[in-house]
Design brief:
This protein is α/β, with parallel strands linked by helices. Helix content is 37%, strand content 16%. The chain is globular. The structure holds pyridoxal-5'-phosphate (PLP). Pyridoxal-5'-phosphate binds next to helix 5. Homodimer.
């Protein structure tokens, strides 16, 4: 095949490439040729800052020398071997390392290829656990999930999702899920450092409100009130139906796809307590927020919560090779061990690429990078992101500015997100902006100048009245 021209590439893209989450009737081909650091370059050579970390996975930016070298080195030894009854040495080392890093006794690691599958694994393991644990409760087949939740697009993950557009049409093939309203983050004032947990963790700051600053004590009380109200909704369901509920599933601290909906402090630990009280398992889906995004290695670390399942993806390999993982505890794992020759308690589930060696090598190099200064440097970057967000929050078009770690988001008083996104594209920033929402979720190691550029462009876009 001869090398296509750029026009041909665009033509083929339009004709043959059905893109994810993309209304194809309106699709305008945008073909990326290479990427370096926080910048994507399209086939015309135009540069775009990647303000969404390539959908939240490029933790270290692109073409990071350490990760690229690790993948190439691994490729020279072995690209892949199955995880059925065997495993790549590098995947074994990764499993041990994840077990060492994870909160509490999350010692057992099941690898898969994407975040949806990591959630699917947790859901299936939870259900099977209740059938074969010491005191089986086979009626526990439902899940409690939150409104506006997003856990991926396989069938189980779709079922526990709460965003109608992704979910409703598939209703007939989805399992039974009880959906509870999450805490209403709009009811919470965004006082700088207070109320939302700023005092809990120096890496967690919230932009001061653009108008009517609430009294800090009042902010705390409102956050506590909203947290208590949401937990009460969960408890009401568990009190009635725990004997039919296998697990509660939650996106710890931030429901990203819901529009960066941030939970008040205490919500996650409150959920843990309720799950313990009512004998229901807790699945923490950290696919989007794990590995540094919230300022700590795991979001669960902020509230010292040990879930029964921890789902990881995205940052796990910094976006280099697809991989995800579901971690669980000995209590859960042991229920899957056969106790005699006639018993079959095996978890009959797996993916061709589970434990892929290239992905494991990318993950090991990513963790090396985290441990050699990236995590320590995060508070300064988070503070910089917060400063820029605070500045923006003064714009009369901006409301509900909020930040958790390296996630900054705000709403617009008018639904001009699309126009802001278009303006940013025209000015070399790829920004996720739609309806009345804009957020910035850059690579964790973004250069200060690149971060400033992203915010300058957003400010200019707002000023230009796009
Ligand atoms: N869980 C959460 C919280 C997510 O944000 C996502 C993706 O955005 C997923 C699961 C699904 O991950 P993947 O797209 O890798 O299947």
């Amino acid at each position: 095949m001869t090398t296509p021209t750029n026009d041909q590439l665009c033509e083929w893209d339009r004709a043959h490439y059905w893109h994810s989450f993309t209304p194809m009737a309106d699709y305008e081909p945008w073909v990326i040729a290479r990427a370096e650091g926080s910048t994507l370059y399209d086939i015309e050579g135009k540069a775009y800052l990647d303000a969404a970390s390539s959908m939240w996975c490029a933790a270290l930016g692109h073409n990071h020398p350490r990760v690229s070298a690790a993948v190439v080195e691994q490729l020279g030894r072995m690209a892949h071997c199955t995880s059925l009854g065997m495993g790549a040495d590098v995947a074994v080392r990764l499993a041990k390392r994840l077990a060492d890093l994870a909160p509490g006794d999350l010692q057992h690691v099941f690898f898969s290829s994407d975040g949806s599958s990591a959630v699917e694994v947790a859901m299936k393991q939870a259900l099977q656990y209740w059938r074969q644990c010491e005191r089986p409760q086979p009626a526990k087949t439902k899940y409690l999930a939150f409104g506006e939740a997003y856990h991926g697009d396989t069938i189980g993950a779709t079922a526990v999702g709460g965003i109608g557009r992704y979910h409703d049409v598939f209703g007939p093939i989805l399992c039974e899920v009880i959906r509870v309203d999450p805490p209403d983050s709009r009811k919470l004032p965004p006082p700088g450092g207070e109320g939302w947990g700023g005092g809990m963790n120096p890496a967690t700051r919230f932009a001061p409100p653009p108008r009517t600053p609430p009294h800090q004590g009042e902010g705390n009380r409102m956050a506590e009130g909203e947290c208590a109200a949401a937990l009460a909704r969960v408890e009401a369901v568990l009190a009635e139906q725990a004997d039919t509920i296998a697990a509660v599933i939650v996106e710890p601290l931030v429901q990203c796809a819901a529009g960066m909906l941030m939970h008040p402090p205490g919500f996650l630990s409150g959920l843990r307590q309720l799950c313990d009280k009512h004998d229901v398992l807790l699945i923490a889906d950290e696919v989007a927020v794990g590995f540094g995004r919230t300022g700590k290695l795991f979001a669960c670390n902020h509230e010292e919560v040990v879930p029964d399942f921890l789902c990881l993806g995205k940052h796990l390999t910094a976006g280099y090779v697809p991989m995800a993982a579901t971690l669980t505890t000995p209590r859960l794992y042991e229920a899957f061990l056969n106790r005699n020759a006639t018993e079959d308690r095996t978890f009959w589930h797996g993916h061709t690429y589970s434990g892929n060696a290239l992905a494991a090598a990318a993950a090991m190099a990513t963790l090396d990078e985290f441990e050699s200064g990236l995590l320590d440097g995060l508070p300064a970057r988070i503070a910089h992101l917060g400063e820029r967000l605070c500045h923006l929050a003064a714009d009369p078009l901006v409301e509900h500015a909020r930040q958790r770690g390296m996630i900054a988001a705000f709403n617009l008083t008018e639904p001009i997100g699309r126009q802001i996104g278009r303006y940013a594209m025209d000015h070399g920033v790829w920004l996720r902006a739609k309806d009345d929402l804009v957020y910035v979720m850059p690579p964790l190691n973004i250069e200060a100048g690149d971060l400033d550029r992203i915010f300058d462009v957003i400010s200019e876009g707002l000023e230009s009245g796009t």
